[in-house]
Amino acid sequence: MKVAVFGTQSYDKQYLKEANENAGDAHELKFYKPNLTRDTLPLAEGYEAVCIFVNDVADREVIEGLAARGVKLVALRAAGFNNVDLDAARERGVGVVRVPAYSPYAVAEHTVALLLALNRKIYRAFNRVRDGNFLLDGLTGFDVRGKTVGIVGTGKIGLAVARIFNGFGARILAHDKYPSEEAKALGAEYVEVERLFEESDVVTLHCPLTPETYHLADAEAFERMKDGAVFLNTSRGALVESSAMVDALKSGKLGGVGLDVYEEEADLFFKDLSDRVIQDDLFARLLTFPNVVVTGHQGFLTVEALRNIAETTIGNITDYERTGKSGNEVQPQRESA
Ligand code: NAI
User: Fold this and answer.
1) Is the pLDDT of residue 334 over 60?
2) Is the CB of 300 inside a 6 Å radius of any atom of ligand 1?
3) Which residues sit opposite 95 in a β-bridge?
4) Rounded to two decimals, what is the model's pTM?
5) Choosing from 48, 199, 263, 265, which is the catalytic residue?
C-alpha cells in the first residue's frame, strides 16, 4: 500500500523503515513531520493508508476528508485510539487498525522510574551534586517496601506495574472492571476505586480513556487520597482533572506527581518549544512545583517497544491490503484502550 506516515519523528522513520525492509519492502512509505489535522489533510491525497500516532487528529471531519481522498485505512502506531472517530470511520468504510500490545514493560518501567525519581529526589540530587552541593536536606524519600500502591486498570501495563511493585515488597490494591487472575495471584486486592484512593500511598493510572474514565482523578478523588500521596499518570492526560491536581499540589495534599501524559499535551509534546513561551498556564504552573516530574509521553520509547510497534503496524497494513481486514482492527463497539 502507499502509506502516508504523519507526525514522523526520527525513531518512527528508523523503525518503520526497518520493519518494512524486513517485510520485503511491502509498502511504499512517505514520512511527513506534521501531524494529521484538518489542515494537513491534503498531504494524504493519493495514499491508500495513513499511519498516525496519539496526537494526530482523526475526528469525523478528518475521516471524511481522508475517505474523500481515497484513503481506506488508518493505521495507528499506538494502543490507544481515543483520537479516532470510529463511527465516522465505519460509516465511510475506512478501516482502523492499532497495535494492541507492545512491550507493556516499557510503560510500566517508566512509571516506576517516575516514582523513584520523585521519591528519591534524583533530579534535585543530580543538580545539587553538579553544583558541588553535597548537602542532603530536602532529599529524604520513603521505602516503597511495605507501602500501599493503588493500580487503576490491571491490563497489560497495570499488571506489569503490579509485578514490579510486588518485587519491591509493596501491598497492592487494584481496581478494574475485569479483575486479573494474575494480579490476584501476586496478592493484589481488588477494591472500589474510592477505597483505592483512600488507602494508597501511591496511586497510578493504567486504564484507557473512555467517557467513563474521563476525569477519573478529579477534585473529589484527590480529596479522598492520603495526605502526601504520590500520584502517577502514564496513561492518558484526560483521565485527570489537571486544575484539581494543581490545587491538590498547592495545598500540600499531594506529596508528589509524576506524569508522562497531560490533558492538553497535543499542543506541547513531541515538539521543540524551547525558544517559545509556554501558553498553557496550568502546565507552566505544574512545572514550577519541586515535587512534580513530567516527561513528554515517552513511556513507550524503548528499542523493544518501537520494534514491536513498527512490526505490528507493517503487519496490520499487509493483512488489510491482502484480506480487507486485520486481527488488530478496532471495532466501534469495543472500548477505547
Ligand atoms: P489494556 O487494555 O491491556 O488494559 C487496560 C485495563 O483497564 C483493562 O484491564 C480494562 O479492563 C481496564 N479498565 C477499563 N475501564 C476501566 C475503568 N473504568 N476503571 C478501571 N479499569 C478499567 O491496556 P494497556 O496496554 O495496559 O494500556 C493502558 C493504557 O496505557 C492505554 O489505554 C494507553 O492510554 C496508555 N498507554 C500509554 C503509553 C505511554 O507511552 N505513556 C503507551 C501505551 C499505552
Assistant:
1) no
2) yes
3) 73
4) 0.92
5) 265
